[in-house]
Specification:
Strand order of the largest sheet: 7-6-5-8-9-12-11
Distance between the termini: 37 Å
Oligomer: single chain
CATH architecture of the largest domain: 3-Layer(aba) Sandwich
Largest sheet: 7 strands, mixed
Number of domains: 3
Mean pLDDT: 92
Number of helices: 13
CATH topology of the largest domain: Rossmann fold
Strand content: 15-25%
Length: 421
């Protein structure tokens, strides 16, 4: 049983761009109705229907920002959050390497200040703190911030924007390094967020931000990264325009492997001395070659998404018709987009396992598939394990190597069905 939002009347005006305010006339992909991807259902609420909202990604014809409409407030999504960064060893290693790079490149020491926006459970800042560098986290989810504070990572419980930045700066805490890992896509008011950055940066301070690269989303059909908590889907071209509007200059960019291929952008005050590297023009050229600088580059994506759904539904039907049991691994938000778009439930996927205790013994939103600890795989011995967070497939296959004992096969669906031993 589901509860969905009523359809908007035809006369209702189009939503407008979160960045420039232009009416959004162009569609990247319409994924139909979907619940909030991180709204896991506790057993005591199993009888309460899920609320489904439109999940429609659009492209701004003016600034080419890809975005989904805001359906609920950020407070409803992020005040009590079940995503803890520290449950992925791959991600923790990525952040250790980032800290080592930043300390060396920008000569950070005990006189410096490192601030992270959306600092989660202290997964990143703990690396700087261990090096004797003063840190400050800014995190809106009280339950997650509590974990960081218990680790000894000072944390402000707040949403980041211009007002928060000014308040922190007024207390004398300006950043030599201001970091944001995967938060830029999560903010509905992207202008207010970016406007806060120069308020908090020292004159020669550096802001780094990472985000999944829109180019990879389109080229590798990573549509499952689209969900309501991700308001925007970013290219260097669009981010550069937004930053420039708020007095920031991008001086370097790196391509990193996380989240299916991301960009790490380095920015500073417009008049800061950091020289612009050739990497910036190189990535802009790659995006332009893929036509991300015009609407043409965004056409035809919907049909590719439909192809993924056809393949996955067909695979599961064939596996079950031959007596096979299919289980899932990783109760990730991207997995919930995939399962709900494909119309898959417990009849198709027996259960899903996850290492995060906060997600265990819940039901996935929409599909209502039960979530257990990884030990369930050993108990049930499924024939196929569908890895939902495909971006950390290798890490998961290593964790579940014991499943080879009974011949289980590992499956990913993005960008196409792939089956491995």
């Amino acid at each position: 049983m589901v509860l969905s939002m009523p359809s908007a009347p035809r006369s209702q005006s189009l939503p407008v761009c979160l960045s420039c305010g232009t009416p959004l006339e162009h569609t990247l992909v319409d994924l139909g109705l979907s619940p909030l991807a991180n709204s896991y259902v506790p057993p005591e609420k199993a009888s309460i229907p899920d609320v489904f909202y439109p999940l429609h990604a659009r492209v701004c014809q003016n600034c080419l920002l890809v975005q989904v409409g805001r359906v609920v407030s950020s407070e409803d999504i992020f005040t009590d959050y079940l995503y803890f960064s520290s449950y992925s060893e791959t991600w923790l290693a990525h952040c250790r390497h980032y800290a080592e790079m930043a300390i060396a490149r920008f000569a950070l020491n005990g006189s410096s200040t490192v601030v992270e926006i959306a600092s989660n459970d202290g997964y990143l800042l703990q690396n700087f703190a261990k090096a004797g560098i003063p840190v400050l986290g800014i995190e809106p989810a009280r339950n997650v911030a509590k974990t960081a504070i218990e680790k000894g990572v000072p944390t402000e419980i707040a949403f980041f924007g211009k007002d928060t930045a000014r308040r922190i700066a007024a207390s004398g805490r300006h950043a030599d390094l201001l970091a944001a890992k995967n938060v830029l896509a999560h903010v509905p008011d992207i202008n207010d967020f970016v406007a806060g950055i120069p308020e908090l940066l020292k004159p020669e301070g550096v802001f780094t931000v990472e985000f999944p690269h829109l180019l990879n989303l389109i080229q590798y059909v990573q549509f499952d990264t689209i969900y309501h908590e991700h308001f925007t889907y970013l290219s260097l071209l669009t981010v550069a325009g937004i930053f420039a509007r708020h007095g920031l200059r991008i001086f370097d960019v790196e391509e990193v492997e996380t989240h299916g291929g991301s960009l790490r952008v380095f920015a500073c005050h417009k008049k800061a001395s950091h020289p612009t590297t050739e990497n910036v023009e190189r990535v802009v050229s790659i995006e332009s070659a893929a036509k991300l600088d015009s609407l043409e580059g965004y056409e035809g994506f919907g049909s590719k998404v439909e192809g993924v759904r056809t393949q996955l539904v067909s695979f599961i039907a064939q596996a079950r018709s031959s007596g096979g049991v299919v289980a899932g691994y990783g109760a990730a938000a991207k997995g919930n987009t995939l399962l709900n778009y494909c119309g898959l439930g417990q009849n198709e996927l027996a259960f899903v396992c996850d290492r995060n205790p906060s997600k265990q013994n819940t039901l996935l939103p929409g599909s209502r598939i039960p979530v257990f600890s990884p030990e369930q795989i050993m108990m049930e011995k499924p024939n196929y394990i569908l890895i939902l967070p495909w971006n950390i497939k290798d890490e998961i296959v290593d964790q579940l190597s014991f499943a080879r004992q009974w011949g289980a096969k590992f499956v990913t669906a993005i960008p196409r069905i792939q089956i491995s031993d």
